[in-house]
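Quick start: what a row looks like.
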Amino acid sequence: MQMDQIANQPVIETARFDLRPVRRSDVGLLNMYAGDPRVAMTTPTIPHPLPPGTMEAFINRALAEPRDEDVWVMDGTRSSWSEVMGIISLSRLDRNQTEVGYWVAPAFWNTHIASEAVQAVVAANPLGNDTMFAAVYHDNPASAKVLTNAGFVYLGDAETYCLARDAAVPTWTYSHKL
């Protein structure tokens, strides 16, 4: 078995789990979790129902060189949890900035995994950014709390299109100067 190696994407350790680059072997769990409408409805880019091949294409983009987004899997195996508990990513923007995106599988909601992951990515700042941005839907205040707990500051309201909802959804936008 050949393990995919991603250059310049470190493993980031948290107290309870690791943030590691995505692997092709993650496809089954990613399909299961991303196919859940509760996950899809909280993200702009996951369609519902999940078309065949969506997660394979996502993994291919995450492994590509060059790429516009670095993706980490929240891997809980060292704490006897699931190998895939969610995803966190940094999408490159101009002027040395990134946008943070994340989702957690419903089985791990209310365990503070998202907070721990966002705080770890901010602390590690693996792309050496000056600023990170993030946006969350108004009907997801738990994600807004994740961001404020990680030091993000509210900037204002906007809208982001959600594939799963087939609609523009109001968002709160946040930034974090590093």
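That is the whole record. The mean pLDDT is 95. The two ends are 39 Å apart (CA to CA).
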